[in-house]
């Protein structure tokens, strides 16, 4: 460089934190779709945003497996950067979630995708047996020194913020101390799932919103509340009772991707045409779209993408979306279950178009009545069941035993993981 050459300017990158990040980068989202293994993939994220979701997480990525091979062919199976769709303009805001127990592997994996997302989340909540055997998720929650190092390594080593999703402890005091530790390690958003580690499967039970409120009151970073969100009315109730900055939904949103779309809103389809009031129904303050229409819209997204969508994800979504009708239309259920291999998407479309015709027939017979009038009462739980042609939550009775501090003001129900299913929907 000659003396006449200008001295290059040193660029200083300012990483936003806490509420600055929540507001200026994420846009102050209130409605958040959870990270779900094999279920919050790109196609589902696009559909979710069309129906009110303001922030979506990727499925959990195992940092150990991701870091073993740096080839695009290997890593694109988990997060496809080759086609530039994942993390692209239509896939923001986006948070990528990892599970890990090794800080170096976690950092290397997160650095590989940090330019394709708005933040990296650490999974501290998965309660499944695979997390126990893999030593990650909620099975790290007694190793606070390790967790601190995992979070802090990302905090100091990434250009984007780190966030953390965790489960509560049996006591409020320990839950609050845990949350404060995560904040001190550098987590810029905390997602608090109000269930303890043992609450899974048939012992899922209710999430404890009072513990989420205690966390919110104890930390200075944004807090997302997770648990007990099945209807639109649950969203505001949760925000009011917890004081949280946003509500995150997993299974509730899988059954009804319009969960975050209030009845007063308009919903645009892929062509930008507002969904007709004739094809959707209101129930309470939420909207419920015919599940066959949602399924066809989802498959249209899958077909439009260069990024590959796993057939296991597609089948899982279709069975959840159309669950209310598949128990009645058993021939279609049988056909869906047997589809596989090349041409599967077109075969799915053929079956769902037939489902749509049958559901339109059933809906036509009930056009004179409102959804509230058509809702029936489930005898064992006393809950209203929405007409079977509409996407809706799925419930099962709770056991009579409840964990310490569980909500007694909430109805005794919980969203059920349907068949066929993935057992890792609660990262």
Could you walk me through the main structural features you see in this protein, from its secondary elements to its overall organization?
There is one protein chain. By secondary structure, this protein is of the alpha/beta class. It has 17 helices and 15 strands. The strands form 4 sheets. An 8-stranded parallel β-barrel has the order 1-2-4-5-6-7-8-9, surrounded by 6 helices. The chain has a two-stranded antiparallel ribbon with strand order 10-11. The longest helix has 21 residues, at 344-364.
* DSSP summary, beta strand count: 15
Arrangement of strands in the largest sheet: 1-2-4-5-6-7-8-9
Low-confidence residue ranges: 1-12, 268-279, 400-426
What structural class results from the helix and strand content? Answer: alpha/beta
**Which percent bin holds the helix content?**
25-40%
The biggest sheet, with number of strands, parallel, antiparallel or mixed sense and barrel status, is:
8 strands, parallel, barrel
Distance between the first and last residues' Cα: 53 Å
Mean pLDDT: 86
Strand content: 5-15%
Q: What is the count of DSSP helices, taking H or I runs of 4+ residues?
A: 17
């Amino acid at each position: 460089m000659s003396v006449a050459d200008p001295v290059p300017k040193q660029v200083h990158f300012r990483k936003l934190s806490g509420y600055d990040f929540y507001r200026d980068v994420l846009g102050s989202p209130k409605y958040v779709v959870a990270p779900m293994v094999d279920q919050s993939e790109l196609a589902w994220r696009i559909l979710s945003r069309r129906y009110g979701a303001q922030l979506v997480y990727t499925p959990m990525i195992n940092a150990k497996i991701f870091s073993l091979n740096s080839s695009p062919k290997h890593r694109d199976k988990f997060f496809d950067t080759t086609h530039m769709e994942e993390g692209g303009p239509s896939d923001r805001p986006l948070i990528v979630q990892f599970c890990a127990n090794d800080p170096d592997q976690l950092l290397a994996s997160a650095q590989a995708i940090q330019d394709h997302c708005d933040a990296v989340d650490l999974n501290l909540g998965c309660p499944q047996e695979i997390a126990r055997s893999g030593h990650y998720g909620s099975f790290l929650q007694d190793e606070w020194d390790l967790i601190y190092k995992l979070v802090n390594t990302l905090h100091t080593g990434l250009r984007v913020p780190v966030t953390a999703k965790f489960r509560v402890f049996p006591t409020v005091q320990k839950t609050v101390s845990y949350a404060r530790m995560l904040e001190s390690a550098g987590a810029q958003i905390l997602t608090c799932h109000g269930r303890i580690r043992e609450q899974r499967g048939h012992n899922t039970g209710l999430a404890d919103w009072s513990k989420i409120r205690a966390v919110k009151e104890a930390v200075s970073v944004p807090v997302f509340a997770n648990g007990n969100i099945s209807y639109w009315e649950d969203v505001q109730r949760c925000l009011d009772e917890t004081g949280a900055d946003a509500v995150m939904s997993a299974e509730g949103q899988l059954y009804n991707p319009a969960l975050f779309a209030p009845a007063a809103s308009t919903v645009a389809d892929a062509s930008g045409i507002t969904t007709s009031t004739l094809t959707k129904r209101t129930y309470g303050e939420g909207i419920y779209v015919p599940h066959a229409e949602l399924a066809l819209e989802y498959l249209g997204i899958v077909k439009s993408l260069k990024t590959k969508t796993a057939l296991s994800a597609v089948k899982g979504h279709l069975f959840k979306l159309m669950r209310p009708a598949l128990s009645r239309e058993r021939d279609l259920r049988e056909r869906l279950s047997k589809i596989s291999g090349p041409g599967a998407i077109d075969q799915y479309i053929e079956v769902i178009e037939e489902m749509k015709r049958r559901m339109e027939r059933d809906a036509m017979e009930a056009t004179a009545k409102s959804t509230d009038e058509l809702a029936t009462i489930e005898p064992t739980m006393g809950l209203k069941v929405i007409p079977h042609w509409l996407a809706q939550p799925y419930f099962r009775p709770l056991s009579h035993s409840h964990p310490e501090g569980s909500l007694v003001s909430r109805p005794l129900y919980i969203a059920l993981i349907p068949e066929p299913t993935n057992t890792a929907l609660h990262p």
